[in-house]
Amino acid sequence: MELHNGLLFWPTTLVKEPHTNPPIKPHYDAIIVGAGMSGILTAKALIDEGLSVAVIERNELGSGSTSANTGLLQYSNDIQLHELCDLIGEEDAVRFYKLCLEAVDQLEKTAQPLKDQADFTRRPSICFASEKKDVSKLEQECEILVKHGFSAEFWNELVVEKRLPFKAPAALYTNNDAEMNPYKFVVSLTEQLIAKGLDLFENTYANIIEDKGNDIILHTMNGIFKTSRIIYTTGYDRLPYGKMKGADINRSYAIVTEQKPTFESWYENALIWETARPYLYMRKTVDHRIIIGGLDEKKANPAKHESKVEAMANMLLDKLHELIPGESFHAPYKYCASFGESLDHLPFIGQHPEQPNHYYLLGFGGNGTVYSMLGSQIIADLIMNRPNDDARLVTLDRKYGIK
Q1: Residue 402: per-residue pLDDT
Q2: Once rounded to an integer, what is the mean pLDDT over residues 203-218?
Q3: Residue 220 backbone phi and psi in degrees, to 5
Q4: What is the arithmetic mean of pLDDT over 183-207?
Q5: For residue 375, how many other CB atoms are within 10 A of its CB?
Q6: Residue 390: which residues within 8 A CB-CB, separation 6 or more?
């Protein structure tokens, strides 16, 4: 399955060094299928445990959803906290939000030794009410966030007009989010891990995966791999083993503008999104561009025709000009990408209920990078046989999961 179509921005920001696959070791403690954000963060977690790890990727490192990721790192879910409380209970919902907040901190720590720190920068977030009927939702959300120790402010219409270049009935201002260059993060982290012993195999597709006793055998065009444990981090692509249930694959559009060094009309360079579903989202980049995305469609595959991508890109430009009047923007980068959403708005992380040596980290939802970070810690605990009470929140044998 192709995960994106169009001209991507992030791969232009870093020259990836040519990679030669290493010799295959006789046996690995763990093999990870998929060399994107989830796969590489899981590799780091397991290498930090002292395990021998290989990552196999059917294409090239970071070439899937990572390259199309817009790099907004938010602890808030696509479903707001008060709504998640109604769905899974207040205690579990608050715990999940706090896990996401901790994951942003862990991403910052991981980015610090990387090249340019992968452009990791702390940012606040502003969620504005798309319509008047959404004001009460933001008031309710602010109340429960503050109740549980999250930093949040409710802005009425007058405050919005004073601080933002567009009008909205209300907005919710929160702290402790961030942004980064996801492609630079994955490529730079992988270079660091290879120096620590990671074996990365690009253009290596596992066409047969079989259990033989205590081992798992992977047959590929490049050779046979043997491991004790396998972790699937294939994102929104087809699973090589097992089937999804309780998830939808949709597609979204994004554009990246030209550089605008003189443009300053942006409150605290915040990450901006809205209450409407599907929603628009915006951020700035370190080189003074704007990324804006949205216009989601309930279709699994990216739009193939250039005319369709161009038309949706123009709609996003129109939305940008509505939100920032008086400025003129162009979009040299425009693309369509697939993304996954679970029906209960939580990722799929954990051990297969019937195949004990098969694990999954699938960050379905708008917070894929954050889910990848928190999921890598859960996977490491499960593999090392450490108790992790949080694993039950995202387990595969809940109502929605892997079968």
Answers
A1: 47
A2: 95
A3: -130, 170
A4: 97
A5: 30
A6: 95, 96, 99, 374, 378
CA dist 219 and 1 (Å) reads 20
Intra-chain end-to-end CA distance of the chain, in Å? 20
What's the burial of 111, exposed, middle or buried (CB within 10 Å: 0-12/13-18/19+)? Answer: buried
- Predicted confidence (pLDDT) per residue in 212-260, tens digit: 999 999 999 999 999 999 999 987 666 665 565 656 677 889 999 999 8
Residue 70 has pLDDT above 50, yes or no: yes
Please state, in angstroms and rounded to a whole number, the distance separating the CA atoms of residues 377 and 243.
Answer: 23
Other CB atoms within a 10 A radius of the CB of residue 107 amount to: 23
**Burial class of residue 307 (count of CB atoms within 10 Å of its CB; 0-12, 13-18, 19+):** exposed
Bridge partners (DSSP) of residue 254 are 293, 335
The residue that leads in pLDDT, 238 or 151, is 151
The contacts of residue 85 (CB under 8 Å, 6+ apart) are 93, 94, 144
Return the biggest CA–CA distance within the chain. 67
What whole-number distance in Å separates Cα of residue 111 and Cα of residue 120?
A: 7
Q: Residue 173: what residue type?
A: Y
| pLDDT bracket for residue 401 (50, 70, 90) | very low
CB 180 within 8 A of CB 73: yes
Q: Copy the structure tokens of residue 36.
A: 């994107």
- Assigned token pair, 287: 């080189």
pTM of the model: 0.94
